# Entry
Amino acid sequence: MSDAGRQSHWENVYTSKGENEVSWFQENPAPSLALIAEIGAKPASAIIDVGGGASRLVDHLIEQGFHDVTVLDLSAAALEAAKARLGDRADKAYWRVADATTWEPSRTYDVWHDRAAFHFLTEARDRDAYLARLKQALKIGGHAIIATFALDGPEKCSGLPVMRYDAARLAQTLGSGFKLLHSQRNEHATPWGSQQLFQFSVFQRAEGDDKFL
Ligand SMILES: C[S@@+](CC[C@H](N)C(=O)[O-])C[C@H]1O[C@@H](n2cnc3c(N)ncnc32)[C@H](O)[C@@H]1O
# Structure
């Protein structure tokens, strides 16, 4: 899919549907919050939610006292929906409208979180572009929490084909600069009661990986 096609797809989703009318809606992003706690993130940790959309993860992180949270998404409408929900608290986070495959990061982060964005990258050149940004933006020793559909999860999301992963396949895709620390499967209940199998994988950016920059 072209960059423009991808952007108009997601802009259309977020301008035509409410936050709880999409399959990926979570009232409480508990698996992500548990993993962010497990890796030892502190309120001062710089966290970026890549393809964060209108997710409530940012609300919970602000509530827990995190004060360096960035939400990046290629849909401006998604970020506007999240900001409207947060009201005055929206100023406690940073918002970036950008495509994760072309974005130019201007700083680095301790935690890179992505739930159900990377799995849309079905072409190798897009995955390579995403991974180049991951390497540019994630500190050495920092953590990447990446959730995709599991190998036996759905083949499509939002009508688009996805790549499905288990931890080993994702580790192979990320390459040797990332150490797999933990993985778990998670059954997500959509707002209409169907089940989707997700794979959450946690990686640490390896020492010495700066040679890839
Ligand atoms: C299935 S939704 C998941 C949203 C959110 N992470 C969550 O868990 O609720 C996928 C999100 O990724 C965003 N997205 C898709 N491709 C992207 C890309 N190349 N760069 C940035 N965001 C992207 C979409 O706009 C959408 O908000």
